[in-house]
Amino acid sequence: MTERKNKREAPLGNYYGRRHDRPLKDEEEKLLTELLPTLQVTEENLDVWLNNDSGKHTVCEIGFGGGEHLYAHACANPDKHYLGIEPFISGTVKLLQNIAMHNPGNMVLCQTDAKLMLTKMPAGCLDEVYILFADPWPKKRHHKRRIINHFTLNELYRVLKPGGEIRIATDHPGFLMWVEEHLVWAEERRLFTVQYKASERPHTWPPTRYEQKALSKGDTCHYFLLQRL
User: Is 135 labeled as catalytic in the residue annotation?
Assistant: First the structure.
């Protein structure tokens, strides 16, 4: 299970999405300069955080958007520890606004490219990973930027504990086909097995803003639950 990045995949550390969608207000800038540093995990202090949470159920959400899904999980599961990775600053601010009102005390945030962060994690450090409504990068020339690829599936296999789970959701038909093709590849290599595949969200998964937006347009959402072998 040692296959690495192929030449068609995006280089590590290159983030291609937007980081801002609008100018930040003064109170939002204050959240970034005062609250975020108290919650922030970087490549430099990742080991410290993981060592502090050693033995605890640890969950990572890659691309948490506005953070509503991650925040709901953290509030509902105080015994679990959550790492949210999201380079999009406006989304991070939305989550910080909720944390400022009520900090569940069991979550940290990271603004590094997720592919790079995965390579910095030690083996077997995560129990669950969420990849929900990731950017589909619909243009063919941008497919190499998609978060689901051979490299990240290998890395996710490495960082997850045996029996660990990955949750994936999408409303984009092209990305759905891409995910299905890559999951066939992952099952053939005995990385993961698909435990759940349906167009109905499991009741234990909190909704996300992107899901609600897709459903309001009449789009169909698709959900996958993978288990590490």
Answer: yes
